[in-house]
Amino acid sequence: MSVRPVRVPGMDKDQVTEQLSGSWQDTRPARDALVRQGAAVATAVVDVLADERSPVDWTISADVLCRIGEPALLPLAQAVASADSPEVARRAGWSLGRLDVADPAVYEPLLKHPHPEVRGDALFAFQRRGEAAARFVGRLLPSLGDPDPKVRQRAVWAFEAIGAGALSALRHLREQPATGPRIRSGALEALAAVGGPAALGRRDQDAWRRLTRIKRLTEIPEALHLCGSWYAVPTGDQAAVLEAFDLGDPEPVTLRTGASAWNQDQHAWDRKRPHACCARVFVSPALDGWTLVFGHTSQDTHRIEDADDEDGAFEHVVRRRCADLSRRFGAAQWYGMSCGDGWTAWCIAEGGEVVRHYDAFDAEEGGDEDGENGGETGGDEGPAHPAEAGYLLPHQDGFPDDAFAGVPSSDPEAFRARYEQVKEELGIPDTCYATDIAARLSVDPGALDARTRVTGRGVLALTACGREHGHPAGALAV
């Protein structure tokens, strides 16, 4: 492997480009040499980073800047503030928040920088240090009242990363009305993010409940963002639903709060809080006569986690739960949707028996030309349900093999035009998803609107894990 000669300090942008043009491995000696030169080359390396036409991969120049550390701080801040494209701001901001510095106090002046993205990147530097940034809590508090909402959100995340070491200062700030409503509101959100409802004082909890009661009076149902799974039972007897799922301590909430909690818990990956995804469940009010249950109970979650075959255990839990619910309520359904891929699934039970179970990712090709399947083929079990009539199932392809011959894969508009043309000419049915089946059999939570009949009130209820560990941390929409 040939190694380029390393130049002396005082390089300009072109010389740095020459040194850093190449692969990650080939440029290692040059990167190490530039790091040693530090302040003498920091500005030139920033210029390379900010050049979207540069032959240098931006991660290579970012590595140099991060290791140079403090001398790159101000040049990067200037690059963020003067960026003429979102990509340049992203590159410079990424590097700015990750500088290898001995003391994060060097970021403090940037917390008052006139450009909001610079302030946000400085907050990210403190966020990365987690609990170690607790000594800076007092200097981070003003950022909770920043005029820019993105900076305020970044400040909340910084306090969330700091954790319990920030609670005392945040509570004290909440008790100081002279600080202004915006910063006190930010402190409230940060408190919830750090410790959940338990971190709030009695006055704040009472205020939240009053606001919830007011909002519920005029709330108009809105479509929920669907990512996860939910059950549907044909009843307005909420107490019976809570008992069926072994839920307790129900707290009345708006639909918006319930949906916020479900989405937050569904995407909880914090290993420090292992029960965040199974501590609570959102039980809806009766929606057009159906009660929907969003989330995972303790028993179901841990039964799946402890199984040798998690996929098999998941299906078994869903089927048994649906059968038990339908025995109690006459019918029950379970639905699943993902916002990150094409997964969709449903399970339908009537009178104590599962009559249909479908999982798009497990289903195998099969059945007759009408899409019906009379046997069990992986995730496509049981005869097709009447609710599926007139649809293709997600794993079925109704298009001929040559339907898109000659259409370049790089031209999505041409592909879409051919798709619509062939679909119309051949009368190919639409593909159904869990929401389509739910709309026919019960309620599609992704289509709630002012026409949805709402009876009763929704609640956040604790599972066995929740009753032991409390509500997950995190601020919820009201």
Automatic annotation (TrEMBL):
Renumbered residue ranges of the record's region Disordered: 363-395
Record's Pfam families?
HEAT_2 (PF13646)
Q: Where is the composition biased (Acidic residues)?
A: 363-373
Q: What is this protein called?
A: HEAT repeat domain-containing protein
